[in-house]
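How a chain folds remains the central question behind the approach discussed here. No coordinates are needed to read the tokens, only the vocabulary itself. For completeness, the protein is quoted in full, as a sequence line and a line of structure tokens:
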Amino acid sequence: MWVNLGVILLQFLSGSIMYSYIIARILKVDLSKIRDGNPGASNLWRAVGWKYGILALFLDYLKGALPLAIFVSLGIVKDNFVISLAALSGVLGHAFSPILRFKGGKAVAVSFGAWSVLTKWEAPMLLGTIFTIFTIIKPKGTTVQEDAFRVILGYLFLLPYIIYKSFHGDFHLLIFYDGNFAVILYKHYKDLWGYLRGQS
């Protein structure tokens, strides 16, 4: 039990490290003044360019997977429900980071990392496909409201896959999905509401 709790805590701490915010501080950039003020890789990209943006995206993805992936690969954690809770803990760490007084980011990249631990390439590929299609439709860039709609749409398209996997013995994925979607929706609902009201 203590090992499981330790892994969940470590994953939360891993998720709570706000790399975009840290990089921006080093570069003396205030992300709160960029676009929607979100302290994430997307705004860092817009503020200082794609090189730092990709670095931050990679680090956010990685923190969603580590240290959980290491413990799983070593066989230290085997219970799928514990793995799902730890993965969700990492997402919560990013979304409500103690570093930023529990405000945090929108948790998209870190969620990709968590899904990679739980499903390998499957869930990230499904989400990524929806995001890519939306980007192709809007090649000149998207508004904050359109970004929110794209993210929620991706998660809705992911649901049939999760239900299918749940009926085939992977019920823990539904538990993670519910928690992850709740966080994603909470972080995007204002912008999503703006999109639905035609404010994009």
About this structure: The chain has a mean pLDDT of 93. The CA atoms of residues 131 and 151 lie 7 Å apart.
